[in-house]
Amino acid sequence: MGWHVVWTVLKKELMDLFRDRKAWMGTLLVPLLVIPFVFFLLGTSYSNVEKEAREYIPLAVQGSSSLITVLQKNPAVQILEPSNPEQALQAGQLRAILTIPVGFDEEIAAGKTAQLSVAYDSTNQKSVYARTLIEQTVEAYSKEVVAKRLNQAGLSEQTIQPIVSTFQNTASEERKSGGMLAGIIPLMLVVSLASAGMAAANDLVAGEKERGTLESLLTAPIAAQHILTAKLLAVMTMSTMGAVASLISVTLAMRLGPMATEGDHFTLAFFSPVTLLVLIVTILLLAALFAGLELVLSTIAKSFKEGQTYMSAVLFLAMVPSYMLMPVSPVDIPAHYYVMPVFNGVALSKEVFYGKVDPMHALLGIGSLLVYVVFTIFLASRIFRREGAGLKH
User: Fold this and answer.
1) Which residues in 262-282 are b (16+ Cβ under 10 Å) and which e?
2) What is the mean pLDDT for each group of 10 consecutive residues in the chain (393 residues)?
3) What does each C-alpha distance from 304 to 203, 206, 252, 310 come to in angstroms?
């Protein structure tokens, strides 16, 4: 193959793409700036809601009990007396309503079980926090009552607690960091690989057909396969750049942003030369697969607008496996997923971020991806040559 011809056409295609401000802004600036900004907004919003929920907890109490005195030891708890507590709860003026029946304290003193009713709004996170606070207070108060009852009976707390469990987390800091990233990174990675090259693929064939420049290019003394190879590499370049930008931005956002958990222990040490190599190969093969599919659809399309409609199918193909495997641990991914298109790339990416790639899974995933890429490029070549022949006539 005349690689110098391919290189010349590739440079021309990339220059045209990067002259289009929307292309490089969508590929680089949006992932690098928008994604961290979204994470920052989400983190700030959650932090503000939690802060407000902790600082002010308005409650309504129907009835009386010494339990209320325990609740009021928390300075954030404020007992209000609205005329319509249920309406105030729905309006967000109250976080919860406690209904204490008559004789509540007497039943407890008599060794019976007293009933406490708590109304809250599950759609309001501040109300949910208030419910949690009430649960914790009731649990602590109940323990005090139990301790007194046991003491009066001449028994110790160990009498009703014969077993104490100790839980030890065996996951290393590297594995915990990788597990945190493995939930979101494969999704962002695969969706970015599919979406970042869509505009380029649509413009390089359907757009050029609409502008009349593709026919001029095909009539030049250049083999159609050289033109297709250059266009394929151009789309792959845009896809890979978008994916890498998304990878960097999400990693930084989760490490440095307000939503970061256990930030002092966050590490990327789960990467090793082998897992990094698997990730790079997976990204390149997925980029080639999506680029081939997008060029097929762009070649079939009769116009740029029609091509945009077809491209949604590629995004759907990327999103379904990504969302299906998002909550699944690599140890629970079925073996046949490693030979299914796109599923194999998502599954391998999750293994990479968990810090351990199974050699058989890597062989199946990369091998099957390679087969799909070869088939897709072959299909794109056949359709492109046929389309080119039609244009020349």
Assistant:
1) eeeebeeebeeeebeebbebb
2) 69 70 62 66 72 87 89 90 91 92 89 90 90 91 86 78 77 63 79 84 82 70 78 88 80 61 53 85 93 90 84 88 86 91 92 86 94 92 71 49
3) 7, 5, 36, 10
Q: Which two tokens stand for residue 198?
A: 């869509």
Tokens standing for residue 364: 């199946």
Confidence (pLDDT) at 98: 93
How long, in residues, is the chain? 393
Asked whether the beta carbons of 201 and 298 are under 8 A apart, the reply is yes
- 129 closest CA partner among 72, 234, 55: 55
| Amino acid, res. 369 | L
**Exposed, middle or buried by CB within 10 Å (0-12, 13-18, 19+), for 176?**
middle
Q: What is the pTM for the complete model shown? A: 0.69
Nearest to 68 by CA among 126, 128, 116: 116
Q: Give the span between the Cα atoms of 391 and 291, in whole angstroms.
A: 22
